[in-house]
Design a protein that fits this description.
disordered N terminus, 2 domains, alpha+beta, seven-stranded mixed beta sheet, Glutaredoxin
């Protein structure tokens, strides 16, 4: 075989193995997480936040229910409302015996503006199971770290400092009744696809 052809073949084979490897490990790469010793993905953990009614809540308050967890903010122009509406529509597609087992959490990454009152007004536009959670900057930081969520304040050139946007991860996580990670949903999934996947996990 010609040396040039041999080199091209080598790179083609290497590329195939690289693509397969990335596909197999995609959820871990997306979440920046690896399985724990028991095979569980290291997503989730303890948190203490304030709900949209002003009550202090922790992760333990949601044990016993399947939990949809999404990090975002109320001033988000499109990604957050789209993701929350997708989840709301998907839950409406499920049989009531399954949707009633789900609690949805919308955790802000912008506590500076997202007070309990603001969160309370915002969540009215989505599913009845949705609970808005906020807290101090440190509390949000700890919760985001537990769920491997990236976020950063972005002030656009020419804008006032308080007219910032938030760059952030857009995954929705499904946690089991025991509080452990089950699966995640990428931004852009259709309500039909999400409902089908939820139905497969919710017993």
């Amino acid at each position: 075989m010609h040396s040039r052809a041999r080199i091209l073949l080598y790179f083609m084979v290497a590329a195939i193995f690289l693509i397969v490897g990335i596909t197999v490990r995609l959820p871990q790469l997306l979440e920046g997480s690896a399985p724990q010793g028991d095979g569980q993905v290291a997503i989730g953990g303890p948190f203490e936040l304030v709900d949209h009614k002003g009550n202090t809540v922790t992760d333990k308050d949601f044990l016993g229910s399947y939990t949809l967890v999404y990090f975002g903010y109320t001033f988000c122009p499109d990604v957050c409302p789209t993701s929350l509406q997708t989840a709301a529509t998907a839950l409406e597609m499920l049989p009531m015996r399954k949707s009633n087992k789900v609690v949805s959490l919308f955790i802000t990454i912008d506590p500076e503006r997202d007070t309990p009152e603001v969160m309370g007004e915002y969540i009215k536009h989505f599913h009845k199971s949705l609970i808005g959670l906020t807290g101090t900057q440190e509390q949000i930081k700890q919760a985001a770290k537990a769920y491997k969520i990236y976020y950063k304040k972005v002030v656009e050139e020419g804008k006032q400092e308080d007219e910032y946007l938030m760059d952030h991860s857009a995954f929705q996580y499904l946690m089991g009744p025991d509080g452990k990670y089950l699966t995640h949903f990428n931004h852009g999934i259709t309500p039909e696809e999400m409902a089908k996947k939820l139905s497969e996990y919710i017993r």
